[in-house]
Amino acid sequence: MENHRSFCPLNLIVEIIGDKWSLLILRDMMFENKRNFRQLLQMEEHISSNILTDRINVLEREGLLTKAADPDHKQKITYSLTEKSIDLMPMLIEAMKWSVKYEAVDRVKYKPAVDLVSATPEFQQDMAQGLIKQHVAAKPGK
Question: pTM score, two decimals?
């Protein structure tokens, strides 16, 4: 059994994704369809390659990502979300909703995110199903 500060539900999630990069990696995979290291490295927030490697390893170890050889380029790795990580999508949307309400979000530059926070639950559910089809059901090379 791993050592945890506590087994409080909030503490357990903070220990997995409470750093400053993990949610941004999941964001880019969910909402921008970034699937490989180079794409993730180009995030607007300028993550360093060693931190990205570390966070991908943690997310994979925690069952939030899987990796497979890219069928078109055997030396490239394709990362996929898991159902466990896709289940975080409502939480990410709620966090963005809070930010849009209380922070100085650039509503023009980030219009897709602003629009997403007001999307219907049905739209969000359809989006999650699409991610499952794209990441979980479809394996690279199929």
Answer: 0.91
